[in-house]
Amino acid sequence: MPIFKSKSLSAYILWVSGCFSILFILALAWILVAADWQAWNIGLSLVVACLFFLVVVIRFKNRVMSSFERALLHIEAVKVEDYNQYAKSEFNEGVTAQLHNELTLLSEQMQTHKSQYDQHALLLYQLIDQLDTPMLVFNQKQKLSYANAAFSSLFGQPWQMYRLASPKLLGLTYTDKGWRLAGKEQQWHVSQSEFIDSGERHQLLVFSNIDSAIRASQLNAWQQIIRVMGHEIRNSLTPVSSLAESLGSKSNSPREKQALDVIAERCHHLQDFVSRYSSLSQNLNLDLQTINLATFAERLQGLFSKQDVTFVSKPQWLWADPTFIEQVFINLLKNAFEAEATKVTIKITEKNQYSIIKITDNGHGLANTDNLFVPLFTTKQQGQGIGLTFCRNIIEQHGGSIEIKNNPSSQKGMTVSILLPVEVKPKQSPIDSAKA
Question: Burial level of 28, CB count in 10 A (0-12/13-18/19+)?
Fold first, then answer.
């Protein structure tokens, strides 16, 4: 068993060095006494020897401990992810030099791994920014640390306003079935995944609009039905129309000629009807540009000069395709006046990189707002169920959204709400998404 069990290397060095120094001084004192030195000479010599050994022992201890202290500083730098700090050994060879070399290699390897992780994290954040579906990142403390621009379409404000907010503050709760967004469970599905950034585990929440997916599926189904029906109807109407026109030109009876003309006219009407429906789901070639709202308002009011159309706009410009957006306004205004409205107010504001359009009328409103955007559905006796579906197709291909609601019971009429992004690329249409 060891004579002295030291708890530290420093104490062990001092103890061993001290023992050898004491033995040497005792031996020196015995030699000096045997040499018959005078007492004061012996005392002075022993004091000098003690001071000498004290300095040697301290320097020896410091030289040995400095290598470990430098290694500890190197390790502390690694712990705070500073891989550019290297410790230099007191010795060029031996085990201490090998220790410092291994620490340097470890720092270089960890620096390489950190660079790779940083690149992956940067690519992830760039991907999040490019996507148009809301994506939220919560850090290890369950605080919102990042989100993309689509956050504002879900919560109405830029994500920076909610930095370091908890999921509870955002209306998010975690259940055995996953994350849920309060009040919007039927519209949004929340997917969760995890990744590591800067040594911390982060949660990534991806919000998928269930309504959009369902609508894309419905539109895809309608497109297939219309394609089949259109093909069959055109194949049947073309020879009938041609035959009716041919017989009408040869007929001498006014009554027969009139009947054949009616048949030909109805055939053309049905062919036009099918063509209009087949265009509902087509991808539009939009020419997005800044539209002067004052000029736009004058044009609309000129088209409806006999009706009361009030136009109120705070921004001066609207980012859209002039032809298609004008057709949307015309369809919506015609619907309002056909619903016995005597006044329509169009109000345009801008908030969070979105143009907000409110079209309010005082007509009789709608009895059923659930199926307004379903193709072929109409509440008009002479309607065809095309107008609103066409409007939504245009708005969504602009990257926006449209919603129609009846006004409160204390008021008459309904309000159409349209969101259009300010100077962004148009989104892929729901039909294209369904095809993909």
Answer: middle
